[in-house]
Design brief:
Elements (H helix, E strand, L loop, with lengths): L10 H11 L7 E3 L6 H8 L4 E4 L3 H12 L15 H4 L2 H13 L7 H6 L1 H4 L11 H19 L5 H17 L16 H4 L17 E3 L3 H4 L7 E4 L8 H4 L1 H8 L27 H11 L4 E5 L8 H9 L2 E15 L7 E15 L1
Parallel strand pairs: 1-2, 1-4, 2-3, 4-5
Antiparallel strand pairs: 5-7, 6-7
Helix pairs in contact: 3-9, 3-13, 8-9, 14-15
The protein binds S-adenosylmethionine.
The site of S-adenosylmethionine has 21 residues, from helix 2.
Length: 355
């Protein structure tokens, strides 16, 4: 998953500057607003231990796969059902299991019944989030993964890997303009492609990593860190609403969905970092309570907190600095789904060395 908010094109800037500032080069990186874990993954690739956290459950699944998983998967208990696993070696196992899931019978369940064209055609409000075939495939695959888990035919590492692969695959064929608040009126080209599970590969290494699914302000009161990286939301759009369908596929909990918005109840996942009236209080509470040696923050000047407010809050912990880099960001274009216009901006990396 890669949207305009992602730090993907800034990873080098973030990594180089954190390593330059932090005295002990072997530090643990805590990426506590992790989303897809793209920043943590970069540090994991460079052999750091990583701690990841996010409020959203689908983010937790992605991070359990990309960060927490760090050894090969064997799928040993699936040998009876997928005999090809006997023939090939470990490098092919992930692909074999994904291919097997791609060829399952389709199922008419939650995603098909709530978010596909076919089931809702003729209803008062049609919903074109997915083509019929992709919604049916998604339900078939999601149910199979859960039944394997229930029967203990896959372990937690395999479960998170398969779910992450499904989340990545379904997002590629979603008929939306970037986020899931609304669908497009006609199925776009990429939504007409067949949903295809591909292995959501992760870096192998020897470190044990930790992943949490908590509100950051609660988490930091019960945990210790070394180097904390913060990349909070920067506007009023809640991530819980932006990605509600991914949350439902991750949880697959048959939720009640609301009339017209077709969204699950996201109220308990509303973030104070998306509220102008709450963000300063939440950020101050966060920064003052973090037990760590360094805090780094990505936050630009056009967002909910201004640069002076950030400086004032972070300076309370001691030695505050800010680094800047010009950067050509891709901006959402309202008329074309997921085509983005370039826009020059300045990227800020604030940090404080803690006394
Ligand atoms: C800007 S995104 C992070 C982007 C990520 N660094 C990247 O480059 O892809 C912010 C993330 O913070 C999460 N979030 C918002 N409020 C939170 C809170 N109170 N506790 C934990 N996570 C939160 C959101 O769910 C979202 O995934």
């Amino acid at each position: 998953m890669n949207y305009i908010w992602s730090k993907k094109s800034l990873l080098d800037f973030i990594y180089k500057n954190i390593v330059k500032v932090v005295w002990n080069k072997n530090f643990i990186l805590s990426d506590l607003f992790a989303w897809t874990g793209i920043v943590g993954r970069y540090f994991k690739q460079k052999w750091h231990k990583v701690i990841a956290n996010d409020l959203q459950y689908y983010s937790y699944i992605l991070n359990k796969n990309y960060i927490w998983n760090h050894k090969d998967l064997y799928f040993s208990w699936l040998l009876d059902e997928i005999p090809e696993l006997l023939v090939w070696n470990v490098n092919n196992y992930k692909e074999i299991v994904c291919n097997y899931l791609n060829n399952l019978p389709w199922k008419k369940w939650f995603i098909y019944k709530n978010y596909s064209v076919g089931w809702t055609t003729g209803a008062e409000f049609e919903r074109l989030y997915f083509s019929d075939e992709n919604a049916l495939r998604c339900d078939g695959i999601r149910q199979k993964i859960e039944s394997w888990k229930k029967k203990k035919l896959i372990n937690d590492n395999e479960y998170y890997f398969l779910l992450a692969s499904l989340l990545e695959a379904i997002d590629k064929v979603a008929n939306t303009a970037s986020v899931y608040w609304a669908f497009l009126k006609k199925l776009k080209k990429s939504a007409l492609k067949t949903l295809e599970l591909k292995p959501a590969n992760y870096y192998l290494n020897e470190q044990e990593h930790d992943v949490f699914n908590e509100d950051i302000n609660s988490l930091i009161k019960n945990t210790s860190h070394e180097v904390v990286y913060l990349d909070p939301p920067y506007n009023h759009r809640q991530y819980s609403g932006n990605y509600h369908i991914l949350e439902t596929i991750a949880k697959y909990d048959n939720p009640k969905i609301r009339w017209i918005t077709w969204m699950r109840d996201c109220s308990i996942q509303k973030s104070d970092y998306c509220k102008k009236s709450e963000v300063l209080k939440a950020f101050d509470d966060l920064v003052q309570n973090i037990d760590a040696k360094y805090i780094f923050l990505s936050y630009n000047d056009e967002w909910l907190m201004n640069l002076d407010e950030i400086k004032k809050i972070m300076s309370k912990r001691w030695d505050y600095w800010v680094l800047k880099q010009k950067y050509r960001r891709f901006k959402a274009d309202k008329t074309e789904a997921r085509n983005h216009k370039k826009d020059e901006t300045i990227e800020y990396l604030h940090y404080v060395k803690i006394k």
